[in-house]
Amino acid sequence: MPVNSPKPLIQPEECALLLIDQQAGLAFGVGSIDRQVLLNNAIALAKTAIVFKLPVIVSTSASKV
């Protein structure tokens, strides 16, 4: 990075994306947003993290996914 350029807002070494319980069965409990919109948003967020080379941590309460 050139000396005079501003520091990027997102730096992979200083952040991560944490996705908690992104599984189909839990989406049925969400009533404030359409389930397809919720899925599309989660996918877009994950793809954005990949573009910025951010580490992605995914957790689930399901024993088999």
Quickly give the structural class: alpha+beta
Provide a count of the helices: 2
Helix percentage range: 25-40%
Query: So what's the overall shape?
Result: elongated
Task: Spell out the helices and strands N to C.
Answer: EHHE
According to DSSP, the number of beta strands is 2
Question: Strand content of the residues, in percent?
Answer: 5-15%
Strand arrangement within the widest β-sheet reads: 1-2
Average pLDDT, all residues: 82
Low-confidence stretches: none
What composes the largest sheet?
A: 2 strands, parallel
Report how far apart the termini are: 41 Å
Radius of gyration, CA atoms, in whole angstroms:
16 Å
Structure in words:
The chain has 65 residues and is of the alpha+beta class. Helix content is 32%, strand content 12%. The chain has two helices and two strands. The chain has helices at 24-27, 35-51; strands at residues 17-20, 56-59. The protein has a two-stranded parallel ribbon. It is elongated, with a radius of gyration of 16 Å. The relative contact order is 0.25. The mean pLDDT is 82.
